[in-house]
Every structure is written in structure tokens, then in C-alpha cells.
Amino acid sequence: MTDTTPVTAAEDVHDLRPPRNQWWDVWDQFKSHKGAMAGMFVFISILLFVFAGPWVWQVDPGLIDIRSRNQGSSWAHPMGTDQLGRDLLARMMYGGRISVAVGLTAMLLGLVLGTLIGVLAGYFKLMDGPLMRVTDLFLALPLLPLLLILVTLFRDPLEGAFGQAAGVFALIVVAIAVTSWMQTARIVRGDVLALKEREFVLAARSIGTPARRISTRHILPNVMSPIMVSATLGIASAIITESALSFLGLGFPPDFPTWGRILYDGRDWIEQYPARVVWPGVLISLTVLSVNYIGDGLRDALDPRIRGR
Amino acid sequence: MTAQAAGLRCMFTYTLRRLAFAVPTVLVISLIVFLMLDMAPGDPTGSLPLTIPLEVREQIRAALGLGDPVLVRYFKWLHMMVIIEPSHMLANATGWNVAVEGPRILSWQTRSPVGDIIVQRIPQTLWVVGLGYLFGILIAVPIGVISAYKQYSWFDQTGTFVSMVGFSVPTFFTGVVFILIFSVWLGWFPSMYDTTHRVRDWDSFLFQVRQIAMPVAVLALFNASQISRFMRASMLDNLNQDYVRTARAKGMAEKTVLLVHVLRNSMIPVVTVIAIGIPTVFTGAIITEQIFRVNGLGDALIRAIYVSDWPMVQTITFIFAILIVLFNLIADVLYGILDPRIRYD
């Protein structure tokens, strides 16, 4: 019993400190989600493999060594080599760079687009109708066929304008972003509609804050949670879409080995050398799985109803 | 007026309202699809021999209707798309004499009407996609129900993990792994779909089952993992409701409470999700058809894209768009029927 007094005193001192940032609470909750922590560990490992790996494993992924083609795992080539004798490990690292970069940029672009449209539709009554009709229209489009058409139609002009790598990269990123912003826009709009009626927005307006400042300073920080959740889902679906395009032979050209492209190329050799489809497939699946688990954990952590418990 | 009649009338106006929105959506989408491919490079006369004189080439272009203004061409195309082609498809399928006379949309690669090719391709897609979806639902519903009822049990833990994996692993990888395991290593199933195969007797039927097993299994796994997540979440929402406690307090058997009260209410959102998911499954099957070389609609689309056969691409994309709008409409109306609260918005 005598121990209790110092503890409460310590707690009082603790309470006098500046209030904890809410993101620390979110992090605490996130830490307790085992799947999300495992997902984060795997995702960071994949990022390291892809971005720091080439510094350790300094083999040129495009180096053709026809004498050592079609090899299995060895110390010289841990994942073996392909039909032209190119080192598969190096190709997986470089391919992963492109796949992850496409996933991240397409997600960011789609997120910005979705948030912009969601905030505009939610905050300005005049734009709500037209913007939501456009969103509904995009939701009714057959996305995969349209993506395929977009890529075939604009590949050559863009390659001519920006060079092969940059042109295809820009095209695929923009095409994925343009076909994936709708869910974010809908969620953000719904949240903004509810937030707009709250007292703090009224207070901001009553002291003459311009609409632009209200939406960036007061509304946007409060819709961060759904945006972050849809960001993680966005990375996953962008990576899958990019690999699906490459798998259909309509993504990156063969000189740029993305995971989907390596899988597509390895499919013809599946009976003799199954490792060539298994490695890229496993990496794509692991990335998507880990990102989805992070998304699950984030959703729980950002939900104040769950966080309290 | 009785309450039932009022409800019916309300349902009717609700359906009409939804329909009034669906038609313009289809029109706008058709315009987008048409314009996108209309601007495409590639010309049906481009592959003709260079020895053809310029004026003859112009006549061929005029005969193909390439000289008209864009809007005229759009309406001509729309007329062919929504009236002439469907009437021929219907006539082919049923043998009725309903085919409307008029110019038809010709595929640039085969020079035959696209409608005929599509009618040939639809059965394969319907079988593979339909069975994949059906099995997916049949697997997903019981798993979702048990997972939710025994939340956090080992069954639930395994179920959620497996569905997370099934939902994260892209179908082009599952398909390839299936080929690797079941046709390369075990040799149980053929890795390629033989579309010329006809079912005549028991043996040929067994062969059909074996060759359709893998594409169906890939699609079923993917669909099941998505639907079971919805089913579980929906069951969990309902299990804590007051009416469940009331039913239990009345002394009803647990089986009745679960399977009659909770399941029926939980199915409402799941049924709409299933309806909305059908067109997505069609477009998603493009990839599965490529893996197993099933010559369905998706395969026709991919091949048409490879060779820039724009009329074919336009038609198939438009069919997919119509499917999406149609099933969204069906889902809305279903929701209205199943949950009367929705109609009064």
C-alpha cells in the first residue's frame, strides 16, 4: 500500500507533460497487431533487397553470358541464370526496383487525385454532383481492358517523347493512377461531408479562414486515416496491376525486367526450369501480402473505437 | 391501397430511377470507348497492297465509313453495336428470324462480323468463369459463417490467413503454380485447354472435367478468399445485434438462430457484393484464360489488342462495360428488395 503514493505522484508529473501525439497511440496499437508487424518486417526486407541489394550483389542484370545459360542455383548464381545466361538474382533486384517504384508512384498519384476530387466534391457543394457522377462513371468502366488499350495506344508516342524506359514508366504509372483513384475519392468525400458540419470548421470559417486554408489545414489532417489505409491497398493493387500488364506482354519491354515480365518470360520454360517463375511469383505475392497485412494493422490502429481497448 | 401494393410501387419507382441513371452511363462509356479507339493509329487499309491506286484506296475507306465526321460514325457504330449485332447474336443462338438487316461490325483480322466470333467465344468463358464463381461462393459462405461464429478459434485464424493469402497472390501466379504442381510434376491435368474437345461420352466428359479443373480452381480460390472475408465481416456485424439475443432468449435452437436469423440478414450485403463482382470476374478471367489458353472472350480481346483489331476491341470492351452497369443495377435492385430501408433514400 505504501508503494502507491509515489506511483500516483509520478503519474501526476507525467500528466503535466505536453500531450502525446496521437500518432504514438496509433503506433502502439499497430505494434500489437502481429500480422502487421510481420508484414512490415517482410516489406522492409523486400525494400532493402531491391534498393540496397544491387550494392552488395554487383552483377549486371543485363550481362549476357551464353556459356552459363540455364544454370540452377550455385554460389556464382544463387537463383540460377536464364536462357541467355543473365543472373536471375540481379534481375530480380532490378526488376523489383521497377515494380516497387511503379507501385509507390502510381499509388501516390492515385491518392493525390482521389483526395483532391474527394475534398473538392465534399467541400464545395457545386462540384459535388458532377464530380461524383464522374466517379461513378469511372467505377463503371471495365478497367483492365481499358488499361490494356491505354498502354497499346500511347506506348509508341510516349516512348518517342521520353525515351523507352521513362516513357513506359510514365505511361503505366499514369494509367494505373487514372483507373484507381475512385475508392479514395468516395471515402474522402464521405468523411469531408461529415467533418464540414463540425464546430471547429465553423470556428475556422467564422474568423475568416479562406476555404482553401480550411480544407488543407483543418479538413485534410482529419481524413488522413482513411487515406493512409487506401494508400496501402493502393500499393498492393498497383503492383499486381503492373505485373498483370507485364504478364500479358503489354507492360515493360524485355530489357526492363520487372517481376511480372520475368514471370512472363519464364513461363515458356516452366517444365525445365520452374525456379524462373517461382522466384518472381513468390516476391510479388510476398510484397502484396505484406502490404495487405500492413493495411489491416493500420485500419485497426487508426480506428479510434478499437484503439481505446 | 394496401401496404404491400405501396411497397411494390415504391420498388418500381426505385428501379426506374436506377435505370434512368444506367442508360446515360452506358452511352457515355460507349462514347469513351469509341473515341479512344477512333483516335488510335492503325488503319484497316494500311495492310492492303501498295499497288492499289490511291483513288481506289479512298473508295475502300469510304465504303468502310471512315470518311464521315466523328459523331456520324459514332451513331452508326452505336446502331450496329446495340441493334444489329445483338439481333444477329440472338438469331444465331436461338434460330429465330430476328436478325436486323444492315451493315455489321467487321473484325479487321478475320473480316467476319465480330458478333459471330463473340458468340463462339462466350460459352468457354461462361463455363470457366461461371463455375469458378459458383465454386468460390460455395466454398466462401460456409467458411465465412464458421469463421465468424467461432471468432479467434484456430479455424478462424487459419481461414483468415488463407483468405488473405488467396486474395494477395495474383491469379497469374496461382495458375502457374497449379500448372507446375498438377500438370508438370503430378501429370493429373492437361496444362492447356483443348477447345476443340467435344463431350460425347463418359470418357470425353471426364477429359472435359480434367481440363477445366485447373482454371476453375484458380478462379474459385481467388473469389472464395474475397467473398469469405465479406461473409465473415457481415456475420460478425449481425451476431452482436439485439435481435440475436432476443431469438436466443426465446429459447430457439442455436442452429435456427444462426442459420435462419443471422445468416439471412448477413447475406444481404454479401449478395450485392456477389452481384457487383460478376463483371469484375469476367475481366479478371482475361488473365486466367491467357494462362490456360482458354479461347474465351478475354483471349479474343488480348489477341485483338496484339494485332490492333480495334472493332473487336471496342465490341468486347463495350460488352464488359454493359455487364458492369447491368450488374450494378441488379445489385442495387436486389438490395432494395432484400432491405426495404434502402428504397426510401
Automatic annotation (TrEMBL), chain A:
| Segments forming domain ABC transmembrane type-1 | 96-295
Q: Which CDD domains match?
A: TM_PBP2
Q: How does it sit in the membrane?
A: Multi-pass membrane protein
Superkingdom of the organism of origin: Bacteria
Q: Which GO terms describe its biological process?
A: transmembrane transport
Q: Spell out the subcellular localization from the entry.
A: Cell membrane
Listed GO CC annotations: plasma membrane
Q: Which UniProt keywords apply?
A: Cell membrane, Membrane, Transmembrane, Transmembrane helix, Transport
Q: Where are the transmembrane segments?
A: 36-57, 98-124, 136-155, 161-181, 219-240, 277-295
List, alphabetically, the SUPFAM superfamilies matched: MetI-like
InterPro entries for this protein: BP-dependent_transpt_permease, MetI-like, MetI-like_sf, OppC_N
Main site of residence? membrane
The family annotation for this protein states:
Belongs to the binding-protein-dependent transport system permease family.
**Name by which UniProt lists this protein:** ABC transporter permease
What organism does the UniProt record list as the source? Rhabdonatronobacter sediminivivens
